[in-house]
Write a structure and sequence with these properties.
Shape: globular
Strand order of the largest sheet: 1-2-3-4
Order of helices and strands: HHHHHHEEHEE
Helix content: 40-55%
Mean pLDDT: 91
Oligomer: single chain
Distance between the termini: 31 Å
Strand content: 5-15%
Number of strands: 4
Length: 180
């Protein structure tokens, strides 16, 4: 059993390494990410905690489960992996769609992702009103709801921290939409 600081360290490592496999393939990239991250993680932890095998193993397991589960298609059990899963779902601001929008001007299958991501102006994570954590999402258009409902909420539904979250979607001129 690790400490709170071990958990934080594992979450940081998973946050930094969860998409390493994207450089090789999008399909099952989380599995490739685990393979690529493991030796790096072991090296970092050996350098930082050279005299504490238990700490190295504990932090390494936390990090690897976070990487393994961040797509929401594999069962996770730890709160730390749940945090990584939700955090990955929150990565949806419009900057991530600027290259696909610039490169592909003709309509293509799957365009809903780039157009909906382009509508997400800002994601803020703060202390909640009704639950401990609140995720506020500001959008320029309703098409951004696709990112919330088909990406973020799908990940939240599989997360171990879902009961601690409230999500609020905001579109100018419309009533705020509250989830969870």
């Amino acid at each position: 059993m690790g400490s709170y600081d071990d958990s934080r360290c594992g979450v940081v490592i998973a946050s930094l390494c969860h998409d390493l496999g994207m450089g090789i393939s999008r399909q099952d990239h989380e599995l490739v990410s685990m393979v690529l991250a493991r030796p790096m993680c072991e090296k970092w932890l050996e350098q930082t905690f050279s005299n504490n095998l238990q700490k190295r193993v504990s932090i390494g397991e936390i990090a690897l489960e976070g990487i393994y589960g961040h797509m929401g298609n594999r069962k996770i059990t730890s709160m730390e992996a749940g945090i990584i899963l939700v955090a990955d779902g929150c990565d949806m601001e419009k900057g991530r769609s600027r290259i696909p929008l610039a490169l592909h001007t003709e309509p293509q299958v799957g365009d809903i992702h780039k157009y909906s991501a382009n509508a997400i102006e800002k994601v803020r994570i703060t202390k909640g009103d009704e639950k401990p954590i609140r995720i506020d999402i500001e959008m320029s258009a309703e098409i951004g709801m696709f990112q919330i409902e088909e990406v973020l909420l799908q990940k939240i539904s599989k997360s171990t921290i879902r009961d601690y979250l409230e999500v609020v979607a905001k579109v100018p001129g419309l009533k705020d939409k509250h989830y969870l």
